[in-house]
Write the structure tokens for this entry.
Amino acid sequence: MMKGRGPNMYTRRVDEEISLVKYYPNYAKALEWYQDPEVCKQVDNRDEVYDLKLLKRMYRYLDRKGWLFYIKYRNRLCGDVCLQDSGEINIVISKPYQNKHIGRRVVSEIIKIAKENDHKELHAKIYGFNRQSQKMFESIGFTQAGDEEYVLQVLSIDIPC
């Protein structure tokens, strides 16, 4: 169980291939993901890639707002995920690791964390052009609640252990 965000919360195993690693400054690796224009468009609907200053600012913000993890797939960092205290989920999977069901498995684990911490509802902002993310969130049980808003009632879903 992971109530709180204290120092005992460093790694959480999702399955035999994936684990969530508590955020720590690893800007060189993370900047690789945010230097991909397609990934930046998917995540932030922006046409420019991140620079180091923006990346640091984003991570500082998310780290204060909730549970922030790197996603480790087969012992390689490949993205990040944040469950904000507000219930918002933010997830980034670098391009070479997309379409491997990593996002689905990670978000399912985030739902478990949300349940453990008594979140009642989760939500994600997904741009209308990002059908890949829409389909992934829908496959887990999220429903569209607005043009770019997807929601999940946490207590109504049963996630297997």
